[in-house]
Amino acid sequence: MASIASSVAVPGFCRDKSPMAGVATVAAKPRRMVVVRAEAQGINPDIRKTEEKVVDSVVVAELSKPLTAYCRCWRSGTFPLCDGGHVKHNKATGDNVGPLLLKKQ
User: Fold this and answer.
1) Is the pTM of this model over 0.85?
2) How far apart are CA 26 and CA 12, in angstroms?
3) DSSP single-letter state for residue 27
4) pLDDT (0 to 100) of residue 20
5) Count of beta carbons in the 10 Å neighbourhood of residue 86
6) Catalytic pick from 29, 49, 53, 65?
7) Per-residue pLDDT tens over the stretch 52-105
8) Which residues lie below 8 Å from residue 65, measured CB to CB, with a gap of 6+?
9) Which of 12, 63, 70, 85 is the most exposed place for a label (fewest CB within 10 A)?
10) Is 53 in the active site?
11) How many angstroms separate the first and last alpha carbons of the chain?
């Protein structure tokens, strides 16, 4: 059974002449970075539009900091953490998106 498995070619895997010959290894592929930005339009079309800024808080017991703000507008230069980029976005688009706050219990 082992001889049959070692002779099967698997797409995306390669074999070499190393001491581990016959063991399938994953060929490294170059990674691509994709930047996602919402441009010149609101991100929050219908959630709690009567509020000036939509901010939600979650209490979590296991956090290293007392408060951590996560970006929900995709404008942060420190994404996924919030850097206040939503303020400029909200002024430009009339949107009311704000961060998600994780608070230590």
Assistant:
1) no
2) 7
3) P
4) 52
5) 26
6) 53
7) 999 999 999 888 899 999 999 999 999 999 999 999 999 999 999 999 999 998
8) 104
9) 12
10) yes
11) 55
